[in-house]
Write a structure and sequence with these properties.
Layout lengths: L17 H27 L2 H7 L4 H14 L8 E4 L3 E4 L6 E3 L3 E3 L21 E7 L1 H4 L9 H8 L3 E7 L5 H10 L8 E6 L3 H4 L11 E5 L2 E5 L6 H7 L5 H16 L2 H23 L3 E6 L15 H13 L3 E3 L1 H9 L12 H17 L12
Parallel strand pairs: 5-6, 5-7, 7-10, 10-11
Antiparallel strand pairs: 1-2, 3-4, 8-9
Helix pairs in contact: 5-13, 6-10
């Protein structure tokens, strides 16, 4: 029997249930997040574009390290090794390794630059200076016998100068090196080679590689990110790192830099770390000293007035009553005399020699070191 039109009920559209709408919203959101993540992953592998957003943040440093690793072996891999407490350190027992385009690198059994072995036990009648710092102290781009630590030892007969600078170190790693190893040498003087951007390194838990980081909690330094993750664990987990969050970290870092929040935070944590370096030095009966090491671009500034970065260290030294030397003016004077201080990114031997002479004069003038270990001048 045929149905009349009156017997046919119109088909009304099905109204989605709340559960269906929620599921649909979740699906759309997930699709959007996946698309954003795909775009973010493409972005971080576009070198020229990614490079414009790189800043002083963990994500920039980690992604940059991973990208360099995938492109090929880092030249520093030939002399830098993993350290669970400090992140990385100089390999021990290196002999005449050719680095930096023809320069020579050696290390002793404890991983201190040079061939000289320094026993923990002091030799009677000999003074001992321990030098902490980053690549400018370590001597990137120069040979073992061209670092300012080596020249300083030559200028002070009867004095041992231990070059405990490590490329890429921040003040936090210098503090850990001093506490874990440096104090064992029972130094008379601990010299910190101060480079201004090392302040920012103390904000990070990833730089040249994964590293420790101090946080201020209740006015006290608390060590985090130790043991430091191994290179293998970083590489194996990189695929699971959300690049969208990495971009957020990078953008936040850029905003903090523009607003002046980053430098404020960096100086706050740096002051606490320097306080601990000074306290540790004095606890073992040694005397601390700071030397401001100007980078090459700073040497273009011929103004006799201190820069903001120099003023920060000057104020710290005044308040802490720590002897402090600033090398920029001495370097400018040498330039006027025709002694050029050049280099690609770091100092050349002329810079190191000038620094060593200035540090030697400074240490003697301040009474930190005798000119001869056999007696006072």
């Amino acid at each position: 029997m045929n149905n009349s039109p009156e017997d046919i009920s119109p088909q009304l559209p099905r109204i989605p249930t709340p559960l269906f709408r929620a599921a649909q919203g979740v699906a759309y959101t997930l699709c959007l997040l996946v698309c954003i993540e795909i775009a973010a992953r493409a972005f971080v592998h576009l070198g020229p574009i990614f490079g414009r957003f790189v800043g002083w943040d963990d994500s920039s440093s980690r992604i940059g390290w991973v990208n360099r690793h995938h492109r090929g072996k880092d030249p520093a891999d030939s002399f830098i090794v993993y350290d669970p407490m400090r992140g990385w350190t100089l390999a021990s027992n290196l002999r005449g390794l050719t680095v930096f385009g023809g320069k020579t690198l050696s290390s002793n059994s404890k991983g201190i630059r040079g061939n000289t072995e320094y026993p923990y036990q002091r030799q009677p009648g000999r003074q001992r200076i321990l030098v902490l710092g980053d690549s400018f102290t370590f001597g990137d781009e120069v040979s073992d016998d061209e670092t300012y630590a080596h020249y300083l030892e030559e200028l002070l007969p009867g004095t041992e100068v231990l070059n405990m600078g490590i490329s890429g170190y921040g003040h936090d790693q210098m503090l850990l090196y001093l506490k874990g190893e440096g104090v064992k040498y029972k130094p008379d003087v601990v010299v910190v080679g101060f480079v201004w951007f090392d302040c920012y390194r103390s904000l990070l838990k990833f730089l040249s590689f994964s590293k420790p980081r101090f946080e201020l909690r209740g006015g006290k330094l608390v060590l985090t990110n130790t043991p430091v993750p191994t290179p293998e664990s970083v590489l194996s987990s990189e695929w699971y790192q959300p690049k969208t969050l990495d971009l957020g970290v990078m953008l936040r870092g850029q905003f903090e830099r523009v607003l002046g929040l980053m430098i404020k935070h960096a100086r706050t944590i740096t002051t606490a770390i320097l306080d601990e370096i000074v306290a540790t030095t004095r606890q073992v009966g040694a005397r601390p000293a700071f030397v401001y090491l100007p980078m090459l671009d700073e040497l273009e500034n011929s103004n006799t007035i201190m820069t903001p970065n120099e003023q920060y260290l000057f104020s710290y030294c005044e308040e802490s009553r720590v002897p402090c030397l600033f090398l920029r003016q001495r370097f400018l004077e040498e330039r006027k005399r025709g002694v050029a201080c050049t280099g690609r990114r770091h100092w050349d031997p002329n810079c190191h020699a000038t620094a060593a002479q200035s540090i030697r004069d400074f240490l003697v003038e301040k009474g930190l070191i005798w000119e001869r270990a056999s007696g006072r001048p």
